[in-house]
Amino acid sequence: MAKKLSFFIGISLVLSLCNAFNPDNPSGRRILVLLDDFAIKSSHSLFFNSLQSRGFDLDFKLADDPKNALQRYSQYLYDGLILFSPSVQRFGGSIDVAAILDFVDSGHDLILAADTSASDLIREIATECGVDYDESSMVIDHISYAVSETEGDHTLIAADDFIKSEVILGSKKIGAPVLFQGIGHSLNPANSLVLKVLSASPAAYSANPKSKLTQPPSLTGSAISLVSVVQARNNARVMISGSLSMFSNRQILSIKCPEGWKLNKKSGNEQFLTELSKWIFHERGHLKAVNVRHHKAGEGEEPGMYRINDDLEYSVEIFEWSGTSWVPYVANDVQVQFYMMSPYVLKTLSSDGKGLYSTAFKVPDVYGVFQFKVEYQRLGYTTLSLSKQIPVRPFRHNEYERFITAAFPYYGGSFSMSLIDYELRQ
Fold first, then answer.
1. Structural domain for 373, as ranges
2. How does the annotation summarize its subunit structure (predicted)?
3. Rounded distance between C-alpha atoms, residue 227 and residue 380, angstroms
4. What is the C-alpha to C-alpha distance for residues 179 and 157, in angstroms, rounded to an integer?
């Protein structure tokens, strides 16, 4: 009986791993959603339904559930993690801060949302990702605010300072400001991987709305980040928000108007969250490179080595995931290096518009072990890091020209001296 049970457990594990993230098909992934309360599942159902309609399998659990686990038998059970549990003091099961950071370090994606009840645990995860939440405060804006029940504190703000990136937020402009009520954060200046996606207006500041302001706020204006993202060097993506209510049905469907808005204008929360979640879960901005080739000009086979001054051709095909299929990626800034300790050749690849990038160049007059290297980093896109090693040899003794043009004067001098010597001997 025990053998049968272990057999079925093994089969179920294999099936779950078959649904894991596949770089060649970045859809159909499993996401663990950790909640403070199961009521969030219904109050934020529009956001969850958007993910499920795009093929994601959501597994809802309480954050302190003792059966929580991100991996089993050293294999990850999920490809994404959503933390909608800002007040949790300690995760249940085998999940802790180190486990979540290892999850991201292994190339998996994370969405973290906090609010004024954010625990030290949630703040620590954000700090490790390069974000520092402000302490005991909320973002307040007396100009770009929305009508709320707590008239006067102006903590329900309307933000429309978005990052200028079509790959992160989509090609269609966000049609309305995003309603935000929560805490702001600042970015660690030493972390170049974190980006502000939604910033507060220049009139905003971070303070405690329940107490009198006695000193200048620590965070003001556009320095306040409301939503930030991180793309790690391993292409894992992280979204960090200072508002959990931003994801709620109430703020997605809200048509209450801040001063200056047209009447009955729906908030931009739904469009903003849908487009941003597409990027977070690699439905957009995900690149792959295939068919990396190089060969001598006029030949088709890849040689084992090159000779100095050989003419060669290099090509690679690059595609982008559109959410349903791979489409050709078109750009004019993909470069290849012919590298040994430093780049001897740097060439921009030309595109045929169908995903094929190619170039031709002459092998430098230096022999050794070289590499073809493509290091492609562009805002919002996954990093491509390609390398292929190839040795370069000098001419063999029988490959040099019999007579070197530049040496003709020396040849002439040698023959003339021989002729003079012959004449003197006569």
1. 287-393
2. Component of the oligosaccharyltransferase (OST) complex.
3. 15
4. 6
